Amino acid sequence: MKILIMAGGYATRLWPITKDNPKALLPVGNRVILDYILEKVEELGLETYISTNRFFEAHFRPYAEERGVELIVEDTLHEEEKLGTIGAMKKAVDELGLDDYLVIAGDNLFSFSLEDFLRAYDGRTLIAVYDVGDLNLAKRYGVVVLEGDRVISFEEKPAQPRSTLISTGVYVFPKAVMERIDEYLSNGNRDSPGYFLQWLLERGEPIKAYRFSEYWYDIGSADSYLEALKTLLRESHVEEIQISPYAKIIPPVVIKRGAKILGRSIIGPYAYIGENCVIENSDVSDSIIFRNTVIKNSTIWRSIIDERCEIRNLELRKSLVGGHAKIQRGE
């Protein structure tokens, strides 16, 4: 069996934050998304590959070398050129050969052990399923109906979901199923694995479900990103920073090297402050602030602010601010 982590998307739903930064390498607490996935993968001791695109290759190359995993790079530079998840799986098979594949979406944060997951594998396609508990929310995903652990119905993004159980981004595809990708791609959606699963089920391929609980996040929106931060940031990590005696830190927080917390600022809880940020007389909570950003006389809540921004005299709530932005209200 080989492990394939899919990180070739352009994450347009999180633009402008992900316009120049791959989603899988976004920070969640003091680590990036891929760190959480690889921590689970490393327990398995299997060959591991990260599938990405030419545009983000330079970001992934040093990371992959440091972590001892190999890259498979699709030759695309733009969203409209991308191979899609199933197209990228075909490229992996072409390069690495037919085998059973554990396929993991690179923007997934999940609570279960991959060792437990693979213990449930019996030669049938295996998918990890999670109960989102809400029919409206289920409409965004591939909805599963089970009979025991057997999938009897699968519908991608249904208008009227038959259950609140959804397929997450963790799958095992046996060699015989990987062999059918060419057949599927001749007339199938290249991007979403859900349509591939639906196609398999319609053709009599058995699919088994592994149910788990606790938590699962698909980092596809600012809300899910910030919720993941709240779940996974369990203790503070404060590097070498400058902090005013009048400032207050409410844990848990991550404050990276070179940051300056000045005046009567309050940081936290659940705040990530990147390298060399300057926060002065401001409150920042439930938010992610990327490096080299300046925030003065402002309140930031449930917001994500990209690098090299300047925010002055503002109250920002549930906002997403792209890099190099300068926003201020008059003095």
TrEMBL record:
GO MF term list: transferase activity
InterPro entries: GMPPB_C (IPR056729), Mannose-1P_guanyltransferase (IPR050486), NTP_transferase_dom (IPR005835), Nucleotide-diphossugar_trans (IPR029044)
Family of this protein: Belongs to the transferase hexapeptide repeat family.
Name of the molecule in the record: Sugar-phosphate nucleotidyltransferase 2
Stretches assigned to the Mannose-1-phosphate guanyltransferase C-terminal domain: 249-313
Transmembrane regions listed in the UniProt entry: none
Record organism: Thermococcus cleftensis (strain DSM 27260 / KACC 17922 / CL1)
Domain Nucleotidyl transferase: 4-233
